[in-house]
Amino acid sequence: MWRCHEACPARATGFPLSPRDLILTLRELANDTLEGIKLPPPNLLAAIGDGVNQVRPETLWSCRTCAACVEICPVGIEHVPVIVEMRRSLVDASQMEATLQKALQNIHNKGNSLGENKRKRPAWTKKLDFEIKDARAEKVDVLWFVGDFASFDPRYQKVSQAFARILHRAGVDFGILYEAEMNAGNDVRRVGEEGLFQHLAESNIETLKECDFERIVTTDPHSYNTIKNEYPDFEGNFEIEHASAMIQRMLADGKIELKKTLDYRVTYHDPCHLGRLNKGYDPPRESIRMLGADLVEMERSRDNSFCCGAGGGRIWIPDPTDKEKPSENRAREAARIDGLDVLVVNCPKCMNMFEDARKSTGNEETFRVMELIELVEECMDLGDGAATDGAETDSADEAVPPDVPSALPHATHGV
């Protein structure tokens, strides 16, 4: 049985990717024309196309790099690195979706994928009734690496504000990098833009090394993955934890004071970059139970969790309207839980995908999508309440003169 073929969220929702067929195609190519050379072949662009024993570009761009195929493969085939390496050849040749190229241009020019002026990055903090330390100027115990979506996405800004209030109430000495923070680069690397990834990593590492802190925390599993596992290759060795692990520890130690418990029936979605790729399965679940909620697992959970569809840069590439999105498939799975109140997420991109999927699958009245952080804030009774129904904030309120974009023939490669 080819388990990877069945586990792939792209294939399960009708996209032209089968991890099995990809490997078999490349194996045949190697046998026919490159005998004795290990996969992937050295001239990867020659392996991409519509010919016999070639891989179509749309197949490569269908991948979410969620590693479900790698996790379940009984013989240890590493499908994702092969796909990422082949994507690099496409990026080198500027063969990519216009929306993806625009996102990479935004990251190169402004340090974030949403194209926002970098001085707006900390605008979400202005709705707080206390100041967050500038970690560039003051020593802090915890440096919070916020991330793009947690800084700019209107729905997730509410989560960032909630996390700030939780840390403040718990007496945590923390700060952020304000406008000096740049995209961490995790998804940039996975779409194949290695030059830009290295630029981002080196820039962030330089900024972090100039700060005085004990450890890093982030609410973004994508940032967590790359800072933890890939920044050390660029001499960026930092102690980092995901916010869910920090929250669980503070709950267990009594540093987070709960004023009430929840009577919700909830299910939890494992983010790929926190769960499968970094084995962060238990802290979120332990926290949910400590909040008093009734946790019911979905059919696919933990190492078998089903990707929301945002990974591997797919959040920057629009899905075809004639196909089911992975997030819709997952929302329908959650809706099958009798009496479900809340789908709990633990990632900015997952929240973005599931807020849309809840509506497009007709489940607006079935369940809410909430961050674990919002549930904790609700139990602490901090007075602001949890965000519901994806209500927008008026983010980045202050008018800031736009940056002048740099003109680049191909926006980002080789930066």
Nutshell version of this structure?
The protein is of the alpha/beta class and 415 residues long. The protein contains 17 helices and nine strands. It has helices spanning 3-7, 9-12, 19-33, 57-61, 68-72, 79-92, 98-110, 148-152, 154-169, 186-190, 194-209, 221-229, 243-252, 282-290, 326-335, 348-360, 372-380; strands at 133-134, 142-144, 174-176, 215-218, 240-242, 265-268, 294-295, 342-345, 368-371.
Order of helices and strands: HHHHHHHEEHHEHHEHEHEHEHEHEH
What level of helicity do the residues show?
Answer: 25-40%
For the termini, the CA-CA separation is 43 Å
Strand content: 5-15%
Rg computed from alpha carbons, rounded to a whole number of angstroms: 21 Å
- Strand line-up of the largest beta sheet: 1-3-2-4-5
Quaternary organization: single chain
Give the overall shape: globular
How does the major sheet shape up? 5 strands, parallel
Query: What class, by secondary structure content?
Result: alpha/beta
| Count of β-strands | 9
If you average the pLDDT, what whole number results?
87
